[in-house]
Amino acid sequence: MPTIAVTTWSLEQTAPTDLLPAVAPDGDVRVVRSEVPSPEFSRYLYASVGGDIRWTDRLGWSYARWVEHLERPGVETWVAYDRGTPAGYVELEAQDDAVVEIVYFGLLPAFRGRRIGGHLLSYGVARAWDLADRWAGLTPTKRVWLHTCSKDGEHAMDNYQRRGFKLFDTKVEEEAEVAAPGPWPGAFPA
């Protein structure tokens, strides 16, 4: 099976004041927390946002696995809507030592390049910093981190750095080359 070299960059913020918010886009763009755990909706977001950039690690998850993940304390999904249509999402996950990871972030292809991403990321990072305010028993956040890779969108790294994230690790690994799965089989050309 052919492989490709994939570079993964890990970035972090260590104080809420590190966040450099983007200007909100024009129009009716809203960001709303998906408060009811919904495996169907979460899988839709995951497959629709990541389908053209080869997000595949969760495609094999069972319904029960999605439920288990979404019901964990400190896991939140924030969804950007453009005129009522889901445009993208950010998934937060509380970790040990008052750390919050932005596990997934991105926009559906039709909504990229419209200034929604910077706004959604800004909103998501702010919610990572105040996550403990919504979850009894969580320690206030001391660090927010994420990773991006060379398979992600061409503007991903720039967006993270413009929001105040600092690089703390870089890795290069060989991965099996897989076709972009799309939100359903054959959605994108190979």
From TrEMBL:
Pfam family, one: Acetyltransf_1
Chain ranges passing through the membrane: none
EC numbers for this chain: 2.3.-.-
Domain N-acetyltransferase: 29-190
Matching CDD domains: NAT_SF
Protein keywords: Acyltransferase, Transferase
GO MF terms, alphabetically ordered: acyltransferase activity
UniProt-recorded name of the protein: GNAT family N-acetyltransferase
UniProt source species: Streptomyces tibetensis
